[in-house]
Amino acid sequence: QVQLVESGGGLVQPGDSLRLSCAASGRTFSRYAMGWFRQAPGKERELVAAINRSAGSTYYANSVKGRFTISRDNAKNAVYLQMNSLKPEDTAVYYCAANPTDYSGSLYYTRSQYDYWGQGTQVTVSS
């Protein structure tokens, strides 16, 4: 069983920055492929960013490319999402997700490819 706990959300103004953190349980975190998803009211949950287990590969949705950065610290069992130049359309609940059964160092892009989810953290961007 993998437990994920997100933190770092909040209310910010347009143009501000936030750093989300996700703490993961498990002794084999370094083998997990990780992703950050978000879900705005009335919308589907969408992949924002993904990182493979070695942090050698990353993926970003077009809407956040150049503004968000995903990273991980395998020694701390943590994955992060640095969000800069935030916009009102970034307002959503952000979820951390894990695929703990990756053996190929791949990235994963769909909800069904992730087995474990955190409870989510609210990010609100408003003036």
Outline:
This protein has 127 residues and is an all-beta fold. It is built from no helices and 11 strands. The protein has strands at residues 4-7, 10-12, 18-24, 33-39, 46-51, 58-60, 68-73, 78-83, 92-99, 116-117, 121-125.
Your description of this structure?
The protein is mainly beta. It is built from no helices and 11 strands. The strands form 2 sheets. Strands 2, 4, 5, 6, 9, 10 and 11 form a 7-stranded mixed β-sheet that branches. A 4-stranded antiparallel β-sheet has the order 1-3-8-7, with no helix packed on it. The protein is globular.
Structural topology:
Layout: E1 4-7, E2 10-12, E3 18-24, E4 33-39, E5 46-51, E6 58-60, E7 68-73, E8 78-83, E9 92-99, E10 116-117, E11 121-125
Parallel strand pairs: 2-11
Antiparallel strand pairs: 1-3, 3-8, 4-5, 4-9, 5-6, 7-8, 9-10, 9-11
What about the largest sheet? 7 strands, mixed
Number of helices: 0
Binned, the helix content reads under 10%
Give the radius of gyration: 14 Å
- Strand residue percentage: 35-45%
Summarize the helix and strand pattern as letters: EEEEEEEEEEE
How many extended strands? 11
Q: Cα distance, first to last residue?
A: 40 Å
- Specify the structural class: mainly beta
* Unreliable segments of 5+ consecutive residues: none
The global form is globular
Mean pLDDT: 95
